[in-house]
Input
Amino acid sequence: MKLSPFEATGVEPNMNQNDIAPPISRRTLLQRSAVGFGSLALASMLAGKSPTHASMNNPLSARLPDFAASAKRIIFLLMSGGPSQVDTFDPKPLLTRDDGKPLPFAKPRVQFNTTSSLLKSPWKFRQYGESGLWASELFPRIAERVDDLCMIHSVYGTNPAHGGAMMKLHTGSDNFVRPSIGSWVSYGLGTENSNLPAFVTICPTLAFGGINNWSSSFLPAAHNGTALGNASVPSIQARVKFIQNSKLPRDIQRLQLDRLNAMNRKHLGQSGFDASLEARINSFELAFRMQSEVPKIEDLSGESATTQKLYGMDNPVTANFGRMCLLARRFAEEGVRFIQVTHNDDKVQWDQHSNLKLGHEKNAREVDLPIAGLLADLKQRGLLDDTLVWWGSEFGRTPTAEGTRNGRDHNPEGFTMWLAGGGVKGGFRYGSTDDYGYYAAENKVHIHDMHATLLHALGLKHERLTYRYAGRDFRLTDVEGNVVRELFV
Amino acid sequence: MFVVLMCAVLTSEKPAVANIPTAEQIRFFEANIRPLLVVHCLKCHGEKKQWAGLRLDSREALLNGGDSGAAIVPGKPDKSLLIRAVRQVDDDLKMPPKDRLTKRQIAALVRWVKMGAQFPETTRAAGRMRDPNHWAFHPPAKPPVPAIKNPKWPQSALDHFILAKLEAAGLSPSTRADKRTLIRRVTFDLIGLPPTPDEINAFLADNSANAFVRIVDRLLASPQYGERWGRHWLDVARYADSNGLDENVAHGNAWRYRDYVVTAFNRDKPFDQFVIEQLAGDLLPFKSEAQQHEQLIATGFLSIGPKVLAETDEAKMRMDIIDEQLETTGRAFLGLTLGCARCHDHKFDPIATADYYALAGIFKSTLSMRKYIKVAEWHENLLPSAAATAKKADFDANVATKKAAIARFTAAADKLARQKLAAESDANHPQKLESLYPTATKAELKKLRDELAALEKAGPELPSAMGVTEDKVADIAIHVRGNPLKLGDIVPRRTPPVIRGPRVPHFTDKESGRRQLAEWLVDPQHPLTARVFVNRVWRWHFGRGLVRTTDNFGLLGEAPSHPKLLDWLAGRFIADGWSVKLLHRLIVMSSTYQQTSAAAPMTADQDPENRLFGRAEVRRLEAEAIRDALLAASGQLDSTMGGSLLKLKNRAYFFDHTSKDLTTYDSHRRSLYLPVVRNNVFDMLQLMDFPDPAVSNGNRATTVVASQALLMLNSDFVMQAAADFADRLIANSSDDDQRLSQLYTIAFGRAPTSDERLADHAFLAKVAQTQPTKTDADKRQRHAWATLCHVALAANEFLYVK
Output
């Protein structure tokens, strides 16, 4: 067999591709994979399941992290639009006491809309679990699992508009097109399954940055997120584009591939060696395998009724999001590194400038049970140990009222995200906002810090995960980012 | 958050020559070895202390070694004491003393020694940064055409430069490609479409000496040339039909700029003129309405960039937009990353923050936006024409007439209603008399109003184009760390002093200075503009520039592989009146261009990257050419030129909160005319490496990923093209062998071999067998041929040019 480009040049894990790195033989790579990541890929390679050539020739080949990782993959549950921290997980007694009074300190210099006085939360909070973490009555099911949650109450961003904040959240930049966090993870670690991409996003929104929120930008195209549908289609219809042929059955496609292979081999022989010609021949075989692999994952018929119920798929209110969560678990099991699930309806789901009560209750009902189900299912399957679940949004909401005192404005100054599994402490609170929940106060965690921390969980040093483009080295965290080590066990 | 740019690791611009570290080697050293030595070794083995007589701060010192002998044996890590020490295998030689390097660090050291232990000097490295003597800042030399040994090979002076380098390396170029390869290569290259069977046959039959030049001239004169090469420029101009970023609204009039570019290439508008129009077209005199419009449209270059339109901080939005204009102008014309100097002096190039704000003042004095309040709106220049004005006046009159009619109607009806009210002596006047109208009257009024609404909806807008105009002229202050709230000294507008050669322009308080900036750019003494552009053209012809970093000629860019050729081409380009078509002719008529892709064995071995251009390269077609070629093969290509296929109104949202994609791409027009929607580029083009249209990019990537294969295997578009292609073959001949000949000629530009015929016949038979026997013969035949055409259209030979 001809040497793959990997063997010829040697590519060290997690280093910029432009680096010259110690040459790694395929065997060494396999050995390294055996002790670290990529054991799935290894197993399938050794079992001869996947044509090793294609996978070794693949920029998505599994790679070692920088150091021992606490998580192998991330499931990101994006609550698009901005759930209100003071109505969900960050109770503020003074906000209740001072309802209707003016905010006793200055509002940010730049705001999205104008807001008036303080608005207390319409929901009651109480403490749950052994840890005594707080949750409001919006999330009764998630509340039962607080002992698995690592609450970060002091997240802050910089952009008070959806578009900028969404791009910041996904790419670390709100005014340039940059690779998405999932693409960085794909670039850093590759995929554990040579038949699947490393980054999958389920029903993402095309607004507010659109595909840039799951694009690889200047990273190699193989690290683009693979989208299943988008926010305009129900999850039951969400499919990877071009994954199946509507007209030709598999046996004819096999005939076509064989003929194509013969043509391409002949052409290769006549053209002088060119790596991309060879790679393209392999890419068709990989595509053919993906074609059967992805629909298998999308097919939930093998899931028991109990499991489907666990995700709320028996209830029209929760079925849509439940299906996304179940798909996320299935992709996680299959070795995808970064799986994003977006909760976004035909408005901006959680964006309650008005109708806070109705809107947040509707939204919470749709996700509460499926998310709790996902956490329970991951745990019972032992997947929560090395899967980091990340719940959050592009920003939170103001504790002050908007309009006729039934809504809240965007607030990037301080809001809550939570993590679960993947080596973080359960039943743990980190950081806080001020007494009214407007600004992050103690142990502030910027979006860049969040990114650095997520990469850290995967065993990646955010300062070292760089890519050279247009004359300089780029990072997900730009020149910022501090790992919040306190979150880890 | 203000833009804070990340610092890059140092690299070299030295080309790879034996025993001199390559850029990659230096990069590897600076990224992996030097930091390690500094942290772990130099405290005891450096400038201040030399424990055991050993220093580790230069290659010489390492070779000289210390008390135990040489620290390294270049190329032999296992024989190097340094490696033994860090591996800590001997009890008496463990370094660092109280620590242990990671396996990764040790591996890096081993690798480094194995590569020859290149140790780039710190002083040299430091001196290279911000070097005002960097080659690209000096005006091009006028190099003589070099002497060569083999006088038979060159067809032009250009070839002398290429051959001289090859000969110096002891290598020889490849032979001339065959005619089929040449016509396919040059046709795709110049017009982005495959040659037709007739064109191929005519060329094969033409044995005259000027057969090839006739092809070239025909292609350069065809309107498809501008569509192909205009598209190249649109990559640089980050052209898009939508804003992208946060508020993805329609650039309803961007197409005018796209058409302007196509026309400019077709008419061979001198490139210097092209530069001036794009930066300052609104400030130029004009002789006709058409010329005035053209020049206004050209300034769309400055307007079509992506903008954060919902940026709540207006001061920041304003500077962000200026930054985008400056960065794009810098990349497109100068090959410099000016944006790096927004927050701090450029880390690598001698561009100070003051230089940045001196240029930013030019754009601050330029009006780009109608308003900055979110959602902000860009400015458009009206394109006044007698016809459009008359049409608008006509329309306004019609609307006025209709409104007057409605007013008369309601006045009369009101009068009746009041009379009725008076008769009923009802004191409670309702506010609106309309509610008292009889049903018939109400219906008639509704009809009139509907007519008015329909009329207004269909009303002509005065044509306008995205572009810029003059604003209040002002110099601006340095924004400390890019922060519009922290202002430093005011910097007068000026061009960066490091760029020497052109006459220094004089900026006045009467004009923004865009015209002066543009004229400075195209001064024949300017060291960058002509070089950057001829290098772009070379890149688009050969797949790789003489300077490989086409968009970065700064210190982090690569040095040219053929500096003299670059300068010679730049000089020739200017002497030829900045004619782009003459430049193409010069290049494609060269022996260098006409080589085969099969290299002489020595050349392939010694120059695997083809840095010396000793052969042609096999290249995949660009995204647009793939789609266009599919349409051409299927006989479905619609060659209509110009205009907009956008269905949205200007400034309308592509995606509001729903994610429904209302843009359709079912047109059979050339790909150039399909809407370019930032944040959601048409999937077929995006998968085939269409560049991100938010950023200027003169060097598209070519990737190979499985999702492209899925597209080719399963997309309706490719399937339809295959079906149409098959129908075309079936319609043209009833003989399978003739159909096969045609299939191969159309798809690959050649006849099938007898082996291929056999394989294809067998394939057709097998596919036909899979069909139920009761299917009628015609249908089975069409299906089988479509299945085979599908294979051909997915084949490398179709998608790659030799």
User: Anything to note?
Assistant: Chain B touches chain A through 104 residues (CB under 8 Å). Residues 386-424 of chain B form the longest helix (39 residues). The first strand of chain B starts at residue 366 and ends at 367. Chain B has five domains: 23-128, 143-221+528-617, 301-381+470-521, 389-461, 714-801.
